[in-house]
Amino acid sequence: MTTATVLIAALSGRGLAASARRAGYLPLVADAFGDSDTVEHAAAARCVTDAARIGFRAKPVFSALAELAASAATPPIGLVLGSGFEDRPKLIAALSRRYRLIGNDAQKVARAKNPAGLFALLDTLDIAHPETQLTLPSDARDWLSKRIGGSGGTHVVAAGSAERSAKRYFQRRLGGVPFSVLAGAAGGGVQIVGVSRQWTVGTGPRPYRYGGAVGPVSLPPAIDAILRAAVERVCAALDLVGRRLRLSARR
Fold first, then answer.
1. Is 58 strand, coil or helix?
2. In this structure, are residues 183 and 193 in contact, taking their beta carbons and an 8 Å threshold?
3. Ramachandran region, residue 221 (left: φ > 0; alpha: ψ -120 to 50; beta: rest)
4. Is the pLDDT of residue 40 over 60?
5. Exposure pattern of 42-76 as b/e (b: 16+ CB <10 Å)?
6. How much is the pLDDT for 204?
7. How far apart are the first and last CA of the chain?
8. Domain-ending residue, one of 44, 74, 102
9. Looking at the structure, do residues 82 and 33 belong to the same domain, yes or no?
């Protein structure tokens, strides 16, 4: 066990805190819930005001991280960002000016979350994906609207009922059971962490709210090979680092 501390900020910091503990670090966690499981893994934890309701804002995030850093037994080696920052590249950039960022910088996150650029890249790499466009389809049946950089599924709605906004894009709905592959990337290499099955628990105006994931699961060899190859090509093309890439498939 080392005495080195590391800052973590995420909507839910429990998983990252547990990983940091297993790696021998003392995690200092700022997240939206401050639940007992996260607190159990963390050397110190702070709940970021209103993050669960409206997302991360600069002042509460900086305040929570400053408190954690001040309370640390040793200066934190850096900051790991988890979920909740996908649509906030400006905040990521601001945090990187204050802390050493361990993971993808603001520019890489913005590029990975830009639907026009990302899906064009997937076409170039010959990676299959749902039909995607930035404008409302003339026939919106079987299309969904998603917020650029959104996470958690609460932002996903039927295309015909979506607000008109430059921050949204449209994607054809596909049937099947969703699976997700999680990978870590560093130094030009890629390591598959595992595959999970996901589901939704949404109702009413938020029918696609994320419900959970279970894994590891095994996929048919042909599908598994396709996903692994896709992960390697996307990570290399975007020059990603850290455990931040998720590619989904359905069967």
1. helix
2. yes
3. alpha
4. yes
5. bbbbbbbeebeeebbeeebbbebbeebbeebeeeb
6. 87
7. 42
8. 102
9. yes
Give dist(CA 143, CA 132) in Å, integer.
Answer: 9
Q: Are 109 and 81 contacting, i.e. CB atoms less than 8 angstroms apart?
A: no
Query: What are 127-153's pLDDT values in tens digits?
Result: 999 999 999 999 999 999 999 988 888
- Within 8 A by CB and 6+ apart from 236, the residues are 188, 190
- Is a pLDDT exceeding 60 seen at residue 86? yes
Dihedral angle computed from the Cα positions of residues 11, 15, 18 and 22, in that order, rounded to the nearest 10 degrees:
-130
Q: Rounded to whole angstroms, how far apart are CA atoms 44 and 25?
A: 12
Instruction: Convert the pLDDT of each residue in 103-125 to its tens digit.
Output: 999 999 999 999 999 999 999 99
Give residue 199's domain range.
178-250
CATH of the domain at 97: 3.40.50.20
167 and 182 both lie in a single domain: no
Q: How many domains does the chain have?
A: 3
Written as six digits, the tokens of 71 are 């309370």
110 is a domain residue: no
pTM of the model: 0.85
Question: For 165-176, how does the pLDDT look when each residue is reduced to its tens digit (9 = 90+)?
Answer: 999 999 999 999
CA distance 46 to 116: 36
Question: Token pair of 24, please?
Answer: 């021998």
Q: Helix, strand, coil % (nearest 5) of the chain?
A: 30, 30, 40
- Residue 167, both tokens: 């921050």
